[in-house]
Amino acid sequence: QVQLVESGGGLVQAGDSLRLSCAASGRAFSSYAMGWFRQAPGKERDFVAGINWRGDKANANSVKGRFTISRDNAKNTAYLQMNSLKPEDTAVYYCAARRAGGLGVGLRDYDYWGQGTQVTVSS
Asked: N or C end of the chain, less CB within 10 A?
């Protein structure tokens, strides 16, 4: 079983930056794909960014050029650097891990989920 703990959320103004962290338990982190999803009130949980075990990445169109996913296997941690934040980025952000290792963009692609961290962007 893998436990994921997100941190780094908060209240910021439009145009600001935040970096989310996702700390994972277990020894197999380097073989997992990692992903970030977000869910705004009353909306579905959507894919934001993903990174596979080799470091290949994928981003949602809505965050391309602004958000960057990365990982540090030595620290068992994945990150989401968010720049030029907009009010529409307001959501609970969830970290997810996929045992298969390949990039995944769907909710069902991932096996483990964190509890989420709130990001609120004021205008």
From this structure: N
pLDDT tens digits for range 70-116: 999 999 999 999 999 999 999 999 999 999 989 999 999 999 999 99
Q: Which of 63, 72, 78 shows the shortest CA–CA distance to 112?
A: 78
CA-based nearest residue to 29, from 8, 3, 50, 6: 3
Distance CA 43, CA 88 (A): 12
Rg, the chain, Cα only = 13
Phi, psi of 3 (to 5 degrees): -110, 135
Q: Which residues contact 37 (CB under 8 A, 6 or more apart)?
A: 45, 46, 47, 48, 93, 94, 96, 107
Angle at 98 between CA 46 and CA 26, to 5 degrees: 125
Cα–Cα distance measured from residue 35 to residue 10, given in angstroms and rounded to the nearest whole number: 20
Please state, in angstroms and rounded to a whole number, the distance separating the CA atoms of residues 59 and 44: 17
